[in-house]
Every structure is written in C-alpha cells, then in structure tokens.
Amino acid sequence: MLAGLAPRYKRHVTSTYRMPAEWAPHDAVWTAWPYLVEQWSEGLDAPRRALMQMCAGIVDLDASGKPRGERVELLVKDAAAETAARALLGAAAVGVRFHQTTYGDIWLRDTGPLFVTRAGAAPEVSASRFRFDGWGGKYLMDGDTGVSQFVLGVTGHRGAAFDFVLEGGAVEVDGTGTIMTTKQCLLGGARNPGLDQAALEARLCWALGGNQVIWLDQGLINDHTDGHIDTIARFVAPGVVACMEPKNDDPNRDAMNSIIADLRRAKDANGRSIEVVTVPSPGAVLDASGELTPSSYMNFYIANTTVVVPVYGMPADDAALQAIGKMFPGRRVVAADGKAVVIGGGAFHCATQQQPSLPGAR
Predict the structure, then answer these.
(1) What is the structure's pLDDT at 15?
(2) What is the 3-state secondary structure (H, E, C) of the chain?
(3) What pTM, to 2 d.p., does this model score?
(4) Among all residues, which ones are annotated catalytic?
(5) What is the pLDDT averaged over residues 58-80?
(6) What is the pLDDT of residues 90-99, one digit of tens each?
(7) CATH for 272
(8) Structurally, how many domains does the chain consist of?
C-alpha cells in the first residue's frame, strides 16, 4: 500500500492519489519491442514495423526534426534488438530511450504499473502495482511479472503493491473519479475468484482514486484478455465515452449494442449521465487462417500531441479516423497498422503505458 494509507479497503473512502485521464500531460510512454516468435503466428516483421510507426507518431517530430510529443521508453532484449528498432524508427529514434532488460512481450498496458498522481502543496507521481497472472493464467511469459518493478526503478517513483490481480487494459478512468471496466474480465472468476463486485469496486477506487465504477458486460469475440475495456469503450472527456456502432452483419453486433445501451443508462462520479459518442466498427477482420480477430478502433493511444489509431484495411477505417479526430481537437490523428498487431492479442493502447507529468508541471 502507499505509505501512510490505511490497510483496509472502504468503498466510499478515496485515496489522496488519483490516476489521471490519458489526455492529461505525459512525461513519457512505456512500450516494448516484440521478439517472442511463438506469440506472433504471422511473423514479427509486420508488428515490429507497426509498433515503431506507433512510436514515431508518439514522438511526433516537427519540421526541424525536434520531438514535440512525449518521450518513448522502449524495452528491448539486447543490443541487436536495439539496432533493429533504431533502423525502423529512423529520425524518430531521437525521441526514444532504450532499455535492455528481461520482459515477456509488448503488452505494457497490462504488465507495467498504473501511474497515479497527487496534487496540492506536495505534488507527486507515484504508481499502483498489482498482481499479474498472465491474463488469468493463459499466457505466462518469463519476465512479465518483473516489468512493473523495473519501470519504477528507472523512473525513481514510489510504488504501492495491491493484493489483487489487475491489468491496466481492464480499467479506464476519466481523471475525475470515474472508473470503467467489464464484468467479463474482473468478475469472470479466473483472476480474483474470492472477490465479489463490491470488494473489487472498493479495491479499484482505493488503488486508482475513484468514487464510481461503471460496469459493462462483455467484450469482443476471441478477445485474449477476456473483455478488456480498452477494446470496447474509452473515455474521451469527463462524462463522455466513445464506443463502436456495429453494422447489421457485425459478429459483435449484440455486444456492441448492449454496450451503447448500458452506457446511456450510466452515470459518472459527479452524477452526470454519460454522453455516448460512436465510431463505426471495423466489422469482421480475419487473420490468415480465417479466424475472427478482436479488432477495434477503440484501442487508440492518446499521446501529448497525437492520437495513434489502429486501422485494419477495412472500409470503415477512414470514417473511424475522422470521428476520433473530432474527439481530440488540437491533436493530430496518426493511423497505424492495427491488423499486424492484433494478431498478437491487442493493439496500440495494449502496448503502451503512459507516465504522467507532475501535477502543475505544464
């Protein structure tokens, strides 16, 4: 637990720390270079290109070649991997710091810490760390359980260790006390079988500085994460949630329509009804074997100056990019190859973990 905080979880007591919304200023973002061949059924070349395209979009070089975005902290296995990453990054490598270390794969949204901040007379960036069990025991990769501690060692920030399993992709926050998650993931039984909804709400609110939890039901078909929220619904402003609107033949039609209906009934931590904004679904995106992938435009990453959005070579790509661009005036939308990355189990939000700036620093 954070130093000085009571050890008991109380549903209506809020920590003095709070996880900022993703659109708040960042000092950096953490991600990693993919290397485990067995985790990438269609090979490593395309996901590596896509992820370095993502990194370049986050760095966001100006016309003079100076980074105007946020620093990228990139985990690599060894010197050869760093050399390969630099080659794909090109000029954008100036905005990247490389860390040769041990890790499982690229999904730092889930294996890294969730940074929280405290405002006021003694502002601070700290972190909440959770037990990690390989997404309910399905994907156990050497090194993943040590990623959070490694990141904190580099940043020098304090960290609190909490006694339950949680991946960062399972929760979404608006920065004003509202947390959003899914029953499929957190109440499905594999991760925290001894905790009911009330117990999990108390723990989420204490760890992330929340007052209200919005529970959605199911995620997408074939989602490796068992319904992570960042594939189906995202806060884009306080009280405003984006989600996908399906066509009639969409294989996830029922789940998406249920998400829209549940959000329209929900209220945030300030008692406001949620405003729902939608983008088209990509529809059925298949891998090389004909298997349906959990492809989603919601798995975008909100960087300081850009929003990196996965695209899938589908007719809805352009409309989705335009709709998401309207949600983030002042940020440039960067489209990157999401189909290459979803083969491994996620997209750009899954592969990133933002490190917020000190409150009041910008």
Answers:
(1) 67
(2) CCCCCCCCCCCCCCCCCECCCCCCCEEEEEEECCCCHHHCCCCCHHHHHHHHHHHHHHHCECCCCCECCCEEEEEECCHHHHHHHHHHHHHHHHHEEEEECCCCCCCHHHHCCEEEEECCCCCEEEEEEEECCHHHHCCCCCCHHHHHHHHHHHHCCCCEEEEEECCHHHCEECCCCEEEEEHHHHCCCCCCCCCCHHHHHHHHHHHHCCCEEEEECCCCCCCCCCCCHHHCEEEEECCEEEEEECCCCCCCHHHHHHHHHHHHHCECCCCCECEEEEEECCCCCECCCCCECCCCCCCCEECCCEEEEEECCCCCHHHHHHHHHHHCCCCEEEEEEHHHHHCCCCCCCCCCEEEECCCCCC
(3) 0.95
(4) 350
(5) 98
(6) 999 999 999 9
(7) 3.75.10.10
(8) 1
